Amino acid sequence: MKKISLLLVPVLMWLVQGCGQEPQEGTTKSGFRYIQYVQHNGAKPQSGDVVSFHAYQFKGDSIVSSTRNRGNRPASIMMPPENVQMANPSPIIEVLWNMSEGDSVSVFFPLDALQRKPAGYENESEVRYDVVVVGIQKGEDYKKETQQQAQDQNDAIVQAKAREQKVAQLMDQYLTDYKEGRLDDRLTTTSSGLQVLIIEQGNGPKVALRKPVKVHYYGMLEADGKMFDNSFRRGQPLEFVPGTGMVIKGWEEGIPMLHQGGKAVLFIPANLGYGASGNPPTIPGNANLVFYVEVVEVGK
After folding, report:
1. 270 and 193, same structural domain?
2. What does the pLDDT look like over 266-299, one tens digit per residue?
3. Catalytic residue among 63, 92, 136, 248
4. What stretches in the chain show pLDDT beneath 70?
5. 243-265 b/e (C-beta count within 10 Å ≥ 16 → b)
6. Active site residue 228
7. Which of 32, 267, 274, 292 is catalytic?
8. How many domains does the chain divide into?
9. In the annotation, is 291 catalytic?
């Protein structure tokens, strides 16, 4: 369980200070206690609308889960019929009925009435959820948008797969030029021994630590040029968060040198890759690696 200690104030209190509003307390129709920090008095959701929101779940003063930890993508809920009584009411859904875009709320789920408390919450009296509404859409608009996104994603997959052979040929040439010294004056060598050939810097947002990024890649062994993995074959870029140890050290150092749209070749010594143990069966121990990388998207 990942915990982030909060020493001074709740996550949402800074919003209150910035907007000059006093927190307002209330209860939902099922009796869930809430504190509203920011209220814009905008349009409230209707049955069938889709509400997008960020949420944090707390145990005491520590965050145990958050939508921010999944690529910063908000959660989405289609609001149910308002007059239907749910067998197990959701504190989040109930509080969303009274929120508009930009509003922020803490809502509390009491645990003492449960026959058995959830694991890890045996000594807690309630669970707190902090909720910030990102947007409200009509259900039909949301459906059209998601269909378009699915089509765009499918088109991107087809295009990426079609590029695999061309990228392979490009990398064969780069590796040959590297071994014969023809890239020496174009390489940037870091203190760790990583060598980077920047093909295009990219003109979008810069890759930042602890911010999600999507990267297409083509990986080869420096010794014989054998391809061991590539995202073009799958048609989908790899998504990860730099600075969290999700990828090898050569990527942790090299990818943040680029911007969205950037392209580069990383020549990674074994100690910045998979080291003496390698990554069997495709990567032997003490293998130097070569990666072609493209930064497809930099998240917030």
Report:
1. yes
2. 999 999 999 999 999 999 999 999 999 999 999 8
3. 248
4. 1-21, 71-72
5. eeeebbbbbbbbbbbbbbbbbbb
6. yes
7. 274
8. 2
9. yes
